[in-house]
Amino acid sequence: MNSKKPNKVLAPLVIAGITIGFFTAAYRFIFVKSKQDEQSERELDRKIPDTDEFN
Q1: Which is more confidently placed, 45 or 19?
Q2: Rounded CA gap, 38 and 34, in Å?
Q3: DSSP SS3 for 50
Q4: What b/e readout covers 25-51, taking b as 16+ CB neighbours within 10 angstroms?
Q5: pLDDT by residue (tens digit) across 6-44?
Q6: At the N or C end, where does the chain have fewer CB atoms within 10 A?
Q7: Secondary structure (3-state) at 48
Q8: What are the angstrom distances between the C-alpha of 54 and each of 43, 48, 50?
Q9: What is the dihedral of CA 14, 17, 23, 25, to 10 degrees?
């Protein structure tokens, strides 16, 4: 029987790529989203006048 040896390089590269993709997505979800939330809160604070201005 002439069986082909499995490729020992391709499988680890695929697993590493999936892992890096997962960590990148998690980083974006946690850190980038929180930065965007902070920026939107700052913009809202600028748009909403203080109550002292009306008194």
Answers
A1: 19
A2: 6
A3: coil
A4: eeeeeeeeeeeeeeeeeeeeeeeeeee
A5: 678 898 999 999 999 999 999 988 887 767 777 777 777
A6: N
A7: coil
A8: 20, 12, 8
A9: -110
Tokens 């989203």, residue?
33
Predicted confidence at residue 53, as pLDDT, reads 56
Tokens read off for 9: 């390089």
Looking at this protein, which amino acid is placed at residue 10? L
Residue 55 predicted with pLDDT over 60: no
Q: Is the dihedral of CA 38, 40, 43, 49 positive or negative?
A: negative
Q: Where are the alpha helices (DSSP H) in the chain?
A: 10-27, 33-47
- C-alpha atoms less than 13 angstroms from C-alpha of 16 in its C-beta half-sphere: 5
